Every structure is written in C-alpha cells, then in structure tokens.
Prior knowledge:
Blueprint: E1 6-10, E2 15-21, E3 35-40, E4 43-48, H1 54-71, H2 80-94
Parallel strand pairs: 2-4
Antiparallel strand pairs: 1-2, 3-4
Helix pairs in contact: 1-2
Amino acid sequence: MKVYYGKIYLPHINYTVRIRPHKTPPASIRGAGAWVRSDDKFGCTIYLHKNETPSSVAHELVHVLRYICQERMMDFEHEEEHMAYIMQHLMGRVFGYKWAK
Length: 101
C-alpha cells in the first residue's frame, strides 16, 4: 500500500499528526524501519517509507495514541472507543482514504 505524506489535523483535540518520508532515526532507535517523534503537546511526526506495511503503520500509530493520551490527560483504557475511532481515521488517511462529507 502507498503511504500518503502530509498533515492530519484532529480538531476535536487540537492535535496534528505529520506523516513524513523516512529519514535516519535518532541513535536511540538506530535501524528503525519506521518511527514517531512527539513534537510538542499539539502534535507528533511519523517517519515512514513510501510503501510501509499496514502493520508497521499500525505499530507507529499506537505510539501516536499514547502521545495523544499523555498530552490530553486521557486514560487510554477508559478512552477505548474514542481511541479506536482515532486509529481508524489515522490509518485511513495515511493510506489515502477520503471520507465523503
């Protein structure tokens, strides 16, 4: 599947997920095929190869969900459905799905 680079803004929590082409990861995670970095309390950046596997994208998005919960003082276990909808939305956007309005 083809990864689509760009920004995904989640207005209801004021959080932006940036999808960028893979680059050399920090030394602490040397050799990572994909990785995510928290930018600030309003967003993070995921670095992915153009043909990243859905399972690798899902792995990195779990880190994104954790960052969101930390920054928004949300308990991941009690936000089960909310996090599932965010995950679904992010996965779709990373792979280019367009929702009809």
